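Tokens as discussed.
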């Protein structure tokens, strides 16, 4: 689909659950996280139906996120069903990695096209502090298995929050030196609890990395579906990427929309613009009605976010995992 500003929109990020087995400090409170009731969450047949309608409109890429997508029961069947839709070329998953070791083989068998694992630090104590419930060792076991088996292209996303020591970011970056895996540093978007944290910006991280690993060259190719820009460091097996939504706003080339786990189609992470697709589904609406709502919502897709300008941060929690 081409939107009002001439952007080709062919990528949807679908949150399959608002729940998570971690409680990252920049995402959720430690206790008392309100969760969406089971009945309100889209069923798999509803998600695949939306994907089919989107494929008919030229969507090719689907990312399954959460919350933590791997805790949703039956996720592997959903992956297979979406993969089987004509026109969908690419189904990828982001995960915090807690269940990666356990599910890696099944994800590969289901035909997942890529997995992105979130990892902000290699210090066990810091990891426990940031995620409140996680054990670094569990995620590392999953990553080691994934790198050894190498059946699914793998990336690591690192949210660079101030307070995580410089050495830690270097250690995460060094995973791309020692393994054929790309490591991307993500600027935290000032949404929900993320507003309370300050991220380390791209320039600062690049400076740290160049001091430690030598000069970097920009990588001209495209890797994956998203807005990451990549750099190559001498001697590294993988690349270092930056997803810098605030310091290097990429809205002008935005190719994505999002579906919340309760069926709201969001056309920009910052705004509540979009369409209530669950209502249409549950009121017995036709595929044509869904398609019309999608057209209308994409037609109104905002030109861009205004994060970084004072008093423009939205209130409350955003459902999608920050990482
Ligand atoms: S940031 Fe992602 S992994 Fe962490 S609690 Fe939020 S949804 Fe879970």
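Sequence:
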């Amino acid at each position: 689909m081409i939107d009002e500003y001439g952007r080709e929109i062919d990528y949807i990020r679908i949150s399959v659950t608002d729940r998570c087995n971690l409680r990252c400090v920049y995402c959720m409170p430690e206790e008392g996280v309100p969760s969406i009731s089971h009945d309100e969450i889209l069923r798999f047949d509803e998600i695949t139906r939306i994907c089919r309608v989107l494929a008919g409109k030229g969507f090719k890429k689907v990312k399954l996120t959460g919350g933590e997508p791997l805790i949703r029961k039956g996720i592997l069947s959903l992956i297979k069903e979406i993969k089987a839709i004509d026109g969908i070329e690419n189904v990828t998953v982001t995960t915090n990695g807690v269940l990666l070791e356990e599910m890696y083989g099944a994800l590969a068998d289901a035909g997942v096209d890529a997995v992105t694992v979130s990892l902000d630090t290699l210090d066990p104590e810091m990891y426990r502090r940031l995620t409140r419930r996680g054990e670094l060792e569990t995620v590392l076991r999953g990553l080691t298995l994934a790198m050894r088996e190498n059946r699914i292209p793998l990336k690591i996303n690192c949210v660079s929050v101030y307070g995580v020591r410089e050495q830690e970011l270097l250690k995460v970056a060094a995973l791309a030196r020692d393994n054929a895996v790309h490591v991307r540093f993500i600027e935290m978007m000032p949404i929900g609890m993320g507003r309370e944290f300050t991220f380390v910006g791209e320039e600062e991280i690049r400076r740290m990395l160049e001091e430690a690993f030598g000069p970097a060259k920009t990588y001209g190719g495209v890797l994956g579906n998203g807005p990451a820009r990549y750099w190559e460091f001498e001697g590294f097996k993988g690349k270092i990427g930056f997803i810098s939504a605030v310091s290097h706003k990429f809205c002008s080339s935005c190719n994505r929309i999002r579906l919340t786990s309760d069926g709201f189609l969001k056309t920009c992470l910052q705004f509540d613009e979009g369409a209530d697709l669950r209502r249409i589904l549950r009121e017995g609406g036709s595929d044509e009605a869904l398609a019309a709502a999608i057209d209308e919502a994409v037609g109104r897709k905002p030109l861009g976010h205004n994060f970084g300008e004072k008093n423009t941060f939205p209130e409350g929690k955003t459902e999608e995992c920050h990482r």
